[in-house]
Each structure stands twice: as C-alpha cells, then as structure tokens.
Amino acid sequence: MLDPITTIVVLIAVGLGAGTLGSMIGVGGGIIMVPALTFLGLPPAQAASTSLIAVTSTSVSSTIEYSRQKRIDYRLGLTMSAFAVPGAVLGAILSESVSVESFKLYFGILLMFAGIYVLYKNSILKDSAAKKRSMAYAAVFPATFGAGIIASLFGVGGGIIFVPLMLLVLGLTMPRAVPTSQLTLMTTSIAGIFAHGLLGHPDYLQAAALSAGAFAGAQIGARISRTTKDVLLQRLLGLALIAVAIEFVIDWFASR
C-alpha cells in the first residue's frame, strides 16, 4: 500500500493522463481511473463515486473548451441528459449491493467492450453514414438511460455508449459527437455524484487529486484533438483497456 503523499501524486498523474485521453476520444477518463482506484484497494462504490467526481471535472473542462470552439449540439446533449440522469441515480443505489469480486467481473467485461470500441472507432466512424438509420431512432433514449446506470455504477461517465449512439444512430460526425458527449457526461456525472454523496460513498481527498489532474488533462486533450491523428493512440489505449479487462477477469476467477 502506498503512503498518503505518494498516493496523491500517483492519482494526480493518473487523472492527468485519463483526462487527456478521455477528452480526445470522448469516452470519459473513468475507464482509466477506476482500475487505478481498484488496484489501490478502494471498495467498488467508493472507487466508482471517487472516479465519477474526477470524470465530472474532465467533462466540465472539456465542455468549456468545446463550447468555446462552438462544437456542441446543446439540444441533443441536454435531451440525452434528461434520460441519462435518472439512470445515474439508479446506478449509485445499485453500487451499494455490488461485491468486490462481482465488480471486477462486470467492470472487466465493460472494459473489454470499451477496448474493442476504442480499437475500432475509426471503422465505426467510416460506416456511420451508411448505418445511421439502420437502428430505430427510438432506441437512443432507452440506451441513454442504460448508459446513465453504467456511468454511475462503475464511475466511467457513459461516453463509451453516448459516442457510438451519436455516430451510428444519429449520424453525427466525430468532431460533433465527442463534444456533445462531454456535455451529456457532465450532467450525468453531476447527478451521479449527488446520489453517491447522499449515500456516503466518495473519498473526497482522492477525488480532489484525480480531479486536479483530470481538469488540466481535459483542456490538453480538447486542444490536441483538433490537430492530432490519434490512430496509434487509440490502438495503444484499446489494447491497454483489454489487458486490464483480462487482469480483472483473471482476478475474479482466482477469487472463486
């Protein structure tokens, strides 16, 4: 176990990297922060809620920068938020009943899907124009409610669902989907934090350390995303997420 000062330094660094990557590809930094908190020994509800505070920092920072760039579809982002927010409250309540072992299995599966999505994001973007009407438009909002549950239950923000929905079903381009996703992430995460806070879940000191790094990282990521071709970065991140997913699932099997 790390000493308190080292833990804070590590969390700031984790938040910086997670905020940068999360802002660049629009999936939220929670997919990086939650594994770090879990490996530091936090129980599931505390890890999820602590990460969610930092995810909010990332999404607020990104939303500010993307708003300056006039890249956000506010009507869509707020409409999706109306469905995601109740899901976030429900996710916080459900997190109380998830054991460490079950959390590792479920989060490992989530990370596996996130890693595959990140790896194939460019293919999804290329195919989105042809497929955007192949799924019922009405499916977007129930799926957004589900994304709210996942965001709050696991502390990941929900971007791994919001962005594909915007691309594949609504036909948005990536430069529009990622900024709009950040707005929805922000409102969903705030609702999740409120619910988790009432239940006494977050570690606010660790959340502050993560948030400090994540806020700065999100600004960096939002600016880099305008000019950087991030194919290599996507592949490295996707492979890393899959590797962590495998580790979580192996830990689950070992605990049985």
From TrEMBL:
Keywords of the record: Cell membrane, Membrane, Transmembrane, Transmembrane helix
Q: Name one GO cellular component term.
A: plasma membrane
Q: How does it sit in the membrane?
A: Multi-pass membrane protein
Q: Which residues cross the membrane?
A: 7-33, 76-93, 105-123, 135-154, 183-199, 236-254
Classification via InterPro entries: TM_pro_TauE-like (IPR002781), TSUP/Inactive_protease-like (IPR051598)
One Pfam family, please name it. TauE
* Subcellular location, principal: membrane
Q: Which domain of life is it from?
A: Archaea
**What is the annotated localization of this protein?**
Cell membrane; Membrane
| The family this protein is said to belong to | Belongs to the 4-toluene sulfonate uptake permease (TSUP) (TC 2.A.102) family.
The molecule here is called Probable membrane transporter protein
Organism, by scientific name, is: Nitrososphaera gargensis (strain Ga9.2)
